[in-house]
Write a structure and sequence with these properties.
6 helices; seven-stranded mixed beta sheet; alpha/beta; Aminopeptidase; single chain
Amino acid sequence: MHLRIVINRSEFRLIIDVGHTAEAPGAISARNVPEYDFNFWLANQMKQHLIEDGFTKTTLLVTGGDARQSLFKRVTAANQLSANLFLSIHHDSVPDTFIEDWDFEGKPSRFSDRFSGYSIFVSYENPDFERSLLFARLLGNQLKLRGLHYARQYVEPFMGRYQRELLDAVAGVYRYDQLVVLKRTEMPSVLLEAGSIINRDEELQMNSSERRGLISASVSAAVELFCEAHPRQ
């Protein structure tokens, strides 16, 4: 007889890391909104969705300061919380060679409509790489199940120093060993580039509660499956 394991969601500790800081906000969208704002909006809605689904120990991690300093701040905070899983939220841009100019509301702005989609990254240097990869695959599959697609440009030579090894061609999982928040955290860790905000059409989608809801539902479903795969963590 197959016995279904009952998961105590209220004990699972997930950290949702808001990528970048107010002082170092990351990329700028096609309509001149800082990436940090998109990261916070999505991460906050994601936290609420997870709590409503019973993952009541979900923590939103917000840090300040310059870019490099904030990386080590968030790693230290995550390790002190002894979480079961760390998920860093970002929104994508493109290398400068693909950027074009346009005017938005009378202001000189920059865009690139060439690429779209989410991307998921893991690091071989994470101390729990196997479970990092497991969650990354679960998340990518859930995003795909909800009609979203991943960004495929990272495998191309024209990406230069941004080129990455594709570990899962179905789920859209890439290898990025050097990311501090992935390699220095002591728990399974994944970074999600939720979509391209330099792409004018996708920026509008990423700025909608509906798209954030789809991504949040994907994360919650992936966390549930992750718990079932490792019920005693």
